[in-house]
């Protein structure tokens, strides 16, 4: 949603300072907002009408209680897929409307994944080599195919933006947007992750951070390998961790983990300071074109992301 000037926000809301991608206030758009009382939620403007309707419908369906789902045995797998999906998306709190500059704007209210973080490091990773949806015009399709081409063709993902509180720079906040992401290729995408993950001067990463991310990403990968209900276009995985807790002695005691070989959990010890969640469902469509099949476009991207992290773990990381 474009605005000629910075919109005057109503009392009770403010700009979200941690937005790293998408349409932002700096671009003359109405970006993400949050309630001034810091209630642990954010407000995402719905933007284009059809996109907003589609995303709200997605969350409404997802957040239905299991009792409301059909008990037909033929959809048991879909119900199980939705149950897992509920664990790997932000919590949904409805779609309130606010009046901004005399315009009624509908928002999607979601969990603020960075709530309570002192130094939130956040990366938006857009998943899929194809980002245009079935309703895209030829011009839209052409424009999308030209974006982040090197990374999307090789990995099935791209990085529109991220921020990191850099320990090598005494906690300085470093932000990179789409211009940085468009320069990434197979040769240098690893450097972007090393920067985001706070590699030390020798290029080493903390094992516990990589372990936590792999555990979070395993849930998403497992969902993508089995779900046959949706096709996700231009959806992202939001990677987030609190850099202030990298060296916390208390955190070390909490990080006694149980992993299987595929980094799935053996006990319910999920960390609250490292998260990976699927976001952005404005271009989520039912799998009508090839029912009963997985979303290979999405699966390629998430498997590539997991592969990058597994390679870091195989390297000489700090214990």
Automatic annotation (TrEMBL):
Claim: Transmembrane is one of the keywords in the record: no
Keywords of this entry: ATP-binding, Kinase, Nucleotide-binding, Transferase
Reactions performed catalytically: 1D-myo-inositol 1,4,5-trisphosphate + 2 ATP = 1D-myo-inositol 1,3,4,5,6-pentakisphosphate + 2 ADP + 2 H(+); 1D-myo-inositol 1,3,4,6-tetrakisphosphate + ATP = 1D-myo-inositol 1,3,4,5,6-pentakisphosphate + ADP + H(+)
Known EC number: 2.7.-.-
GO molecular function annotations of the record: ATP binding; inositol tetrakisphosphate kinase activity; inositol-1,4,5-trisphosphate 3-kinase activity
Pfam families according to UniProt: IPK
A GO BP annotation: inositol phosphate biosynthetic process
Enzyme class label: transferase
Entry-linked InterPro entries: IPK, IPK_sf
Cellular component GO terms, alphabetical: cytoplasm; nucleus
PANTHER family reported for this sequence: INOSITOL POLYPHOSPHATE KINASE (PTHR12400), INOSITOL POLYPHOSPHATE MULTIKINASE (PTHR12400:SF51)
Family in the record: Belongs to the inositol phosphokinase (IPK) family.
Name of the protein this chain belongs to: Kinase
Source organism: Anopheles atroparvus
């Amino acid at each position: 949603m474009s605005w000629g000037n910075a919109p005057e926000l109503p009392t009770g809301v403010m700009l979200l300072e941690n937005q790293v991608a998408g349409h932002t206030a700096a671009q003359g758009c109405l970006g993400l907002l949050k309630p001034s009382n810091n209630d642990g939620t954010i407000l995402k403007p719905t933007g284009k009408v059809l996109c907003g309707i589609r995303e709200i419908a997605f969350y409404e369906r997802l957040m239905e209680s299991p009792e409301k789902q059909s008990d037909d045995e033929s959809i048991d797998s879909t119900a199980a897929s939705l149950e897992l999906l509920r664990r790997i998306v932000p919590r949904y709190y409805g779609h309130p409307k606010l009046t901004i500059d005399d315009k009624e704007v509908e928002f999607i209210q979601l969990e603020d994944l960075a709530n309570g973080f002192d130094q939130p490091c956040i990366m938006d990773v857009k998943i899929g080599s194809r980002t245009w949806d079935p309703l895209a015009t030829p011009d839209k399709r052409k424009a999308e195919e030209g974006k982040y081409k090197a990374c999307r063709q090789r990995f099935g993902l791209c990085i529109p933006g991220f921020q990191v509180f850099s320990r090598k720079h005494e906690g300085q906040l470093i932000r990179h947007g789409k211009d940085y992401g468009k320069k990434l290729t197979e040769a240098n995408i690893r450097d972007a992750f090393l920067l985001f993950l706070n590699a030390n001067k020798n290029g080493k990463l903390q094992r516990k951070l990589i372990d936590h991310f792999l555990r979070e990403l395993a849930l998403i990968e497992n969902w993508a390998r089995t779900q046959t209900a949706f096709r996700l276009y231009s959806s992202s995985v939001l990677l987030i961790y609190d850099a202030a807790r990298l060296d916390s002695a208390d955190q070390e005691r909490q990080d006694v983990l149980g992993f299987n070989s595929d980094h799935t959990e053996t006990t319910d010890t999920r960390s609250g300071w490292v998260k990976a969640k699927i976001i952005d469902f404005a271009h989520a469509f039912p799998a009508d074109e090839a029912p009963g099949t997985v979303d290979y476009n999405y699966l390629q991207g998430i498997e590539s992301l997991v592969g990058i992290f597994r390679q870091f773990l195989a390297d000489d990381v700090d214990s």
